């Protein structure tokens, strides 16, 4: 495991990979050279510009292209005033065409500390921290210094939080603040360079490396890296086991299938456990339980909150539930749209490769891939918009509920997009192939122009049989080729986009200069800030990093492993290599291709964990079905459904599923018994707090005599005596009953008498009976 | 629902059932007359003896029959001293043969209040209460008065808790305190009589009635009654729906099956929700999370607790897990033992009723019932002992873990005992009947003595077909006859036992008196206490009430409904009637047949909830399988397995199971959205505490200037100025960068300039391009 125990020995020297590290460093420098290459003036201070952020906390990019001049000026003035009102100092500089850059920093550290303290008290009250921070702000900050991500988060919240929560209420791209295009912090290039260098030169990441990410980029991004690193480490088992099965057991081995299912279950449950541990380590446990009101929540009416007594917006759950039911038609639409495209392409491909017999076959076979790569992204964009609108229509009141619902919808779309093709091959094409292929003739419209005669367009060969390699090829495509392409796209596309954009702008400004038109934005920069401003203008143009997209990628990759890796046991080997690079490439992407992300907090990877569980469960079904269908022949049924014993297939699946359920319960039980440093730390903290409260509250009681204390003979006697006497004074049946024996010694004496008599009485009786 | 919302309208007049109520009252009086019937002397003060408990809190029954006289006396002296040490006053009286009765009461109320306060602080620290009790003990008790169950629980804990927790450490029947036979409180007969009268005269119980139970008998028992009442209320739906199906749809209706599955799911999930609500209402939420060390826990070694730093006993979870694996052979043994007995009896019964053809058939057919009723209780006793030992061997460190594990084991045994017979009929006899029945000839040994010739012992009729009514008859037997018998047994057996015991003792003492031997225990009683002591002696002989046995009964009953009610839709009607009586009979049992139970706390019905979930899930399998097999013919397959389409059966079950999983998720989601008074109350309390903490902690901060406060023009300006000046003093790149604009107004002015210029520049450029 990558997560070391706390307080372990000092980090062991990590094996270095000098080649890779040097290459990555070069790439990093090169990329930055490219960023700066449009400003020959700035070359002198380039390295300096990369070194320092000039105390800037945030940059606000204000665009006024579409706004009326006077309005824009008034609104900007208001922006400055609002920011000044919450204690932020501002400086304005010229931005790129039709924008200005507003630099923001906290006016005084003491004021920031007040905000930090308030945030920490809020955390404590919501159960994120076990103990309240010390009442002295100074000592609170000394005992637990502010880390960079916390600082940036608090300032960001100061800028964006609504005014009633003490923020400035700036909402980028929304409402009144439509002109505010983005709010971003500046990259810390010195750190970034170190980060990339360190990661590219070590095989494994350690918990300290993740701590570093958390301190710089916040817990949400750190959780992504922690998850990927855990997943990477776990992958070594299926990679080794898969390689061995591939050598020894061949494809569709039930042993591999079982091993893979166990691994998926253990990994999912382990991560669930690990997540808690990390959340405690980073002090963010229960952060997801702090309700943040969703910005676009539209209350139905205003009610008085029965809990807080405040007026709050209310939207009936029942009404929301009715709206949520729209998810069913939405899901059906998604299945229909994407399904049609995928099935059509699948049909065309099968038709061309297995029926069509004319010229250009080797070229035409790429038609479906072409359709998929053009139509699908368009469809996905449309459907995602639809999903977002539906999600907004469902009108969630908290940000967390909104995000969860949206993530689920996106998962459904991606699930279909990623796996439907393989499902079609495995469960439609292979078992029903011979029934279906003749109908594929309808796809001859796609290739009719190329055919020389009708015969080439029809299924003539009567001895046609399904292609047993199709399934494997498809799995290999998705788990190797597609992953590589994806990785490449992630790094190359934004780079090309940026290059193209820079080129376009250069050309435009050249033309403008030629025409004596507008000078470059940098024309009026003070020479000593020029390089810095140039860099800021570049960063303003970068994309915003979306960590869920990366998480989604990992979860979908996990899906291939759990659902289909029995088809090709080397899957995990491919993923292992891919993910080693992916982790570094993502770090690189954040440093180079994206704006510095705002450091949000999180205590979990959220609904993706449910997705993992779901994929693991579904894997138990598909793996068992695949093993049953393909194990014997290694190529599966021959395409006609009559050869499959449906009852046996169902029995296999039924058995496998329930085995899986029992397995999961057992694994969960065992893992829950594992103690981790995080959980221990939490218990220790809670214990200390408890102890302190207990002592505080019971100190008052110490003055009172205790019942259980060793109050001493005299005290006790007095008490009994008192009780007895007070009973005797008022002669009730109770007082007479309790007044017979005076103190415990008398009770014992009476009992002695009774016991002795009882035994004496018995003895003769027994004798008599004998 | 029986649980009304808090603050609802005053209770509506409840329809009275005068007949039943009068009968119950009579029974109650009669029973008490019977208890007292052996003591003619006491008749005069009988009613008085039933009215008052003479301030007695607990009675300790000390038996010395098997102990050496001197030892017994010394130990009893120690007992009195130990009790006095924790502030309890004692009185001793003669008990029945070889026992003495030690009466115990708290010496002074003030001291008890100290204990109560300590207990409440402990609760708060463990998260059971939202707010700490007020520091003044008196005001704490005034604002939240002590209820009887709390008082009795605290005194019981004072007697039994180990000395290091401030108790007297008296452990009944264990170790040093083997002589302490029982510790019990005295019945409050006035209340009991009211209770029975009230319940027997109303159709429904209200939440207030349950509150009453909680105040008297503690939350654990109150939870049983609340559960049974909820279940009873819910039963009305399947009773009505079942009756309608029985009239309109007949047996094995898929519609009824679906309705029943939905009902079971809704009920289980509703109870999960309701349970939380009640726990909050009764202020016991999270009580189950307070760890109480299990008494017989044997640590492997002593370690220093990493959390508290104290020395504690430690037993490795891995070792416990190894021991838990013994549950598998244990479960197999249980299945084998009970399964063999049940299957054998089943075989014999089928053989006699369907193969055997000789004389005495109508009598012999009861042989299997005879075997079952004699062998099963013996087997169950042995297996329960086995289960308890295994459970002890598993060595749980907390009481809760121990109880959960034991409950699970007992559930497995009862599951087999209750349902295996029906499972055999439905899934073995019906589908495989014709294959199996010929082999039943081996059971002819059972009836050989009665047969007249060999022909009567063999399966001669070739056109034999299975008996389609067998399944229904069996279900009716279990859901009507067995329930009635059970109810009767619960009330009658203890009564007969007690009567027999009383008769035996009477006889013995008569004989002793005739022989001039030992006089009755009551011989030396002071006349005014005689009736009271007589009553106490009777109560000392009563059994200890075990609430889990009653809960188990209800859960198993629920099982018949979820698993097999599709066979006979009237099941719920029978249960509805049965449970109305059962609720009252259980109340009666607690009042009359049992010692007053020690009022324990609980915030759940514990592992039985898991059992309910499990039975609901299994019900989705059995119901769908039964519907598939029996729906068309109404008598199922004709006994040969070839007639069942296994694939169709499996497909049905597979489909039903997954439908059920989706249903459960939906129901859980919907129910989680229901707001309940309890949850609201909890949120309100937590909010108040939070608010208070927040105010306390932030009051210190108010003195500090805030960033977000409307600090006013001057303050803000000063701040910015200061920052600017301090920057200028030391001329770093940062200070020069931030020093250019002086306050937000300058920033706005510069921006105005930039914006105006930008727009001016653009305008001509655009024109040029046009």
TrEMBL record, chains A, B:
Cellular localisation: Membrane
InterPro entries: Anoctamin, Anoctamin_N_fung, Anoctamin_TM
GO cellular component: cortical endoplasmic reticulum; membrane
Anoctamin alpha-beta plait domain sequence ranges: 55-180
Anoctamin transmembrane domain: residues covered: 213-685
Membrane protein topology class: Multi-pass membrane protein
GO molecular function terms attached to this record: chloride channel activity
Transmembrane segments: 221-249, 255-271, 328-352, 364-383, 416-440, 475-496, 558-577, 644-667
Cited Pfam families: Anoctamin, Anoctamin_N
Assigned keywords, A-Z: Membrane, Transmembrane, Transmembrane helix
Key word rRNA processing present: no
PANTHER family: ANOCTAMIN
Protein name: DUF590-domain-containing protein
């Amino acid at each position: 495991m990558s997560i070391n125990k706390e307080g372990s020995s000092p980090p062991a020297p990590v094996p270095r990979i000098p080649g890779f590290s040097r290459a990555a460093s070069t790439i990093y420098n090169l990329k930055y050279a490219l960023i700066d290459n449009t400003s020959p003036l700035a070359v002198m201070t380039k390295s300096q510009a990369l070194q320092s952020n000039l105390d800037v906390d945030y940059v606000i990019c204000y665009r006024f292209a579409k706004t009326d001049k006077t309005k824009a000026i008034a609104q900007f003035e208001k922006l400055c005033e609002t920011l000044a009102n919450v204690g932020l100092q501002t400086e304005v500089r010229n931005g790129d065409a039709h924008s200005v850059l507003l630099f923001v920093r906290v006016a005084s550290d003491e004021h920031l500390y007040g905000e930090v303290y308030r945030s920490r008290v809020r955390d404590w009250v919501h159960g994120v921290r076990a103990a309240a921070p010390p009442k002295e702000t100074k000592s609170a900050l000394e005992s637990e210094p502010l880390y960079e991500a916390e600082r940036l988060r608090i300032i960001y919240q100061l800028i964006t939080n609504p005014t009633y929560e003490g923020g400035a209420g700036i909402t980028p791209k929304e409402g009144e603040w439509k002109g505010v295009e983005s709010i971003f912090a500046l990259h810390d290039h010195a750190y970034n360079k170190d980060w990339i260098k360190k990661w590219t030169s070590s095989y494994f990441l350690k918990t300290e490396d993740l701590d570093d990410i958390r301190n710089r980029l916040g817990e949400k991004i750190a959780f992504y890296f922690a998850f990927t690193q855990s997943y990477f480490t776990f992958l070594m088992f299926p990679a080794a086991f898969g390689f061995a099965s591939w050598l020894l057991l061949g494809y569709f081995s039930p042993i591999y299938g079982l091993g893979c299912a166990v691994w998926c279950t253990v990994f999912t449950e382990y991560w669930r456990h690990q997540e808690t541990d990390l959340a405690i380590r980073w002090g963010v446990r229960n952060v997801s339980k702090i309700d943040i009101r969703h910005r676009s929540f539209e209350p139905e009416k205003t009610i008085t909150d029965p809990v807080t007594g405040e007026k709050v917006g209310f939207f009936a759950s029942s009404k929301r539930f009715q709206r949520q039911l729209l998810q069913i038609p939405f899901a059906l639409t998604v299945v229909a749209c994407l399904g049609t495209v995928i099935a059509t392409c699948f049909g065309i491909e099968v038709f061309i490769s297995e029926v069509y017999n004319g010229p250009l076959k080797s070229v035409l076979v790429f038609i479906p891939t072409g359709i998929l790569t053009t139509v699908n992204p368009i469809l996905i964009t449309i459907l995602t918009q639809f999903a977002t609108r539906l999600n907004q229509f469902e009108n969630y009141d908290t940000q967390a509920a909104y995000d969860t619902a949206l993530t689920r919808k996106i998962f459904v779309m991606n699930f279909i997009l990623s796996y439907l093709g393989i499902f079609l091959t495995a469960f439609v094409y292979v078992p029903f192939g011979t029934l279906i292929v003749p109908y594929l003739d309808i796809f001859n419209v796609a290739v009719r122009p190329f055919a020389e005669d009708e015969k080439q367009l029809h299924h003539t060969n009567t001895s046609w049989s399904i292609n047993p390699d199709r399934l494997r090829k498809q799995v290999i495509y998705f788990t190797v080729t597609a992953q590589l392409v994806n990785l490449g796209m992630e790094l190359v596309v934004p780079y090309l986009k940026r290059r193209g954009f820079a080129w376009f702008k250069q050309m435009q400004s050249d033309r403008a200069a030629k025409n004596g038109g507008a000078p470059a934005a940098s024309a009026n920069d003070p020479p000593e800030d020029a390089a810095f401003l140039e860099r800021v203008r570049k960063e303003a143009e970068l994309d915003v990093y979306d960590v869920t997209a990366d998480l989604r990628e990992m979860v979908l990759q996990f899906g291939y492993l759990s659902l289909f890796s029995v088809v090709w046991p080397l899957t995990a080997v491919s993923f292992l290599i891919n993910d080693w690079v992916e982790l570094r490439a993502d770090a690189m992407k954040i440093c180079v291709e994206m704006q510095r992300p705002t450091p949000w907090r999180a205590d979990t990877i959220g609904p993706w964990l449910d997705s993992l569980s779901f994929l693991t469960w579904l894997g138990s079904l598909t793996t068992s079905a695949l093993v049953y269908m393909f194990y014997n022949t290694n190529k599966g049924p021959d395409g006609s459904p009559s050869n499959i014993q449906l009852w046996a297939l169902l029995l296999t699946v039924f058995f496998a599923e329930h085995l899986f359920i029992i397995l999961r319960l057992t694994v969960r039980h065992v893992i829950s018994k594992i103690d981790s440093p995080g959980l221990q730390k939490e218990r220790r903290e809670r214990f200390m707090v408890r102890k302190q409260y207990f002592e505080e509250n019971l100190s008052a009681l110490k003055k009172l005599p205790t019942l259980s204390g060793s109050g001493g003979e005299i005290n006790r006697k007095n008490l009994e005596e008192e009780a007895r006497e007070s009973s005797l004074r008022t002669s009730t049946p109770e007082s007479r009953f309790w007044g017979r024996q005076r103190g415990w010694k008398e009770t014992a004496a009476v009992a002695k008498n009774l016991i002795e008599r009882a035994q004496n009485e018995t003895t003769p009786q027994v004798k008599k009976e004998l």
